[in-house]
Amino acid sequence: MIQKEKVLLHFREVVDSYLSAKDSRNIAQLARKAKIGESTLRKSYNQQTLLGTDNMLKVLTITSGENVALKVINMYKGPIEEYLKDAYIHFVKSDDDTTVVLHNIEEHLRDFHKYIIIKRISHCDNVTRQVIKELFGSMGESKLNELIEHEIVFEKDNVLDIKEYSFTLPAHLYGTHCGELIKTFFKSDSALSSKAVIRNISNSVDKNTYNEIMNVVSDVSSKIYNLSKKGPGGIPFAFVGMVDTMEFSIVGEENE
């Protein structure tokens, strides 16, 4: 179990080191660069609340000057590294040195349709405006135009491209986007004909079994991730996995 106090203390030391390097640096400026709320950063700096892993990663890209997720994580040996490795285990297990942390894209990732458009373009070759229109109609084309206007997506010779092909989705968006992903694209006929897989398993388990299940899903996710990195093909596939409790408390929270 990661001890929040140790992570907070380590984070304070990292931020202090960054701020002390130049007189012009301050908390407000760091928050703006990382694209997170100043009050959110101050609370973590003052040891009150722990930043979420996605926000901490964004801050650390500024303090380190590095934007590749795995490299950032490996730069901060100790409590911060342990905290982030738990959240980004698929990067760690696959030794992924391509996925970057983007600060200017999060506002667009909040929109599910923009998120799918970005994913589709980043994972498939020769995606055209017509492909997006076939997916989401005129609304999709409007979303695409917004992405082009903000220079997230580029259009050249009728083919759509994106600046960064691999990026992290902020943790707080997983719940909404993964549910919407299943709702939008899962086809029951595909499952019946063994062209898609969906499972729903629930039970009552002890903490050791829960941790074993977590490890199994983590290993499977990493293997699927590695397989998907072999290169682009003709099938834009999706995998969604979740393990959590059907309660509102976090496992082990009562012992902290």
Domains, number: 3
First-to-last CA distance:
9 Å
The computed structural class is: mainly alpha
Radius of gyration: 20 Å
Helix content: 55-70%
Mean pLDDT: 85
CATH topology of the largest domain: 434 Repressor (Amino-terminal Domain)
Q: Would you identify the CATH architecture of the largest domain?
A: Orthogonal Bundle
What portion of the residues fall into strands of 2 or more residues? under 5%
Unreliable runs: none
The oligomeric status of these chains comes to: single chain
Query: For the largest beta sheet, what order do the strands appear in spatially?
Result: 1-2
CATH class group of the largest domain: Mainly Alpha
Tally the helices: 13
Query: In total, how many beta strands?
Result: 2
The string of secondary-structure elements, in order, is: HHHHHHHHHHEEHHH
What features would you highlight for this structure?
single chain, 256 residues, mainly alpha, 434 Repressor (Amino-terminal Domain), two-stranded antiparallel ribbon, 57% helix
Structure report:
It contains 13 helices and 2 strands. By secondary structure, it is mainly alpha-helical. It has 3 domains: 4-94, 434 Repressor (Amino-terminal Domain); 106-162; 172-247, no CATH class. A two-stranded antiparallel ribbon has the order 1-2. A hairpin with a 2-residue loop joins strand 1 (153-156) and strand 2. Helix 2 (27-34) crosses helix 4 and helix 4 (53-64) packs across helix 5 (69-75). The chain is globular, with a radius of gyration of 20 Å. It starts with a helix and ends in a 28-residue tail after the last helix.
